């Protein structure tokens, strides 16, 4: 469910960056507001929300945007998977489902290659994020088995 945190962690690991995470509750008249702060190298990213997880996601999204303006590029796993599939002539399909009410849906996505399930499962609040997380798992698996983009 924490799409941006997963993408930020991948970005930090691939570029060997240093990061620290802090989340603190602040009591207001309207309730508890969580303030999440992420320190990555020389930048600070923040997110605030009444939900702790959403505050952390907002901070991670902010950090990704700031890192990308500094030239650090995140991977787009769906694009990478499509490029690997094209290079090796693989047929990739996403199978998506969701549960919950329209305002609180949980999307699930799995990937099949040439009709065979790859054992990937992406779960997120939006379908596109679930597909990206499922693709991440498959790309990492394919790369471990010797499939390369270049």
Determine the strand fraction and express it as a percent band: 25-35%
Provide the CATH top-level class of the largest domain: Alpha Beta
By helix and strand content, what is the structural category? alpha+beta
Q: How many DSSP E strands? A: 7
Q: Shape, please?
A: flat
Uncertain stretches of 5 or more adjacent residues = none
Element order: H for helix, E for strand:
HEEEHHEEEEH
**What would you report as the Rg, rounded to the nearest angstrom?**
17 Å
Helix percent reads 40-55%
How far the N terminus sits from the C terminus, by CA atoms, comes to 31 Å
- Main sheet characteristics: 4 strands, antiparallel
| Structural domain count | 2
Query: At the third CATH level, what is the topology name of the largest domain?
Result: Double Stranded RNA Binding Domain
Question: Which architecture of the largest domain does the CATH hierarchy give at level 2?
Answer: 2-Layer Sandwich
Q: What is the average per-residue confidence, as pLDDT, rounded to a whole number? A: 93
Number of helices: 4
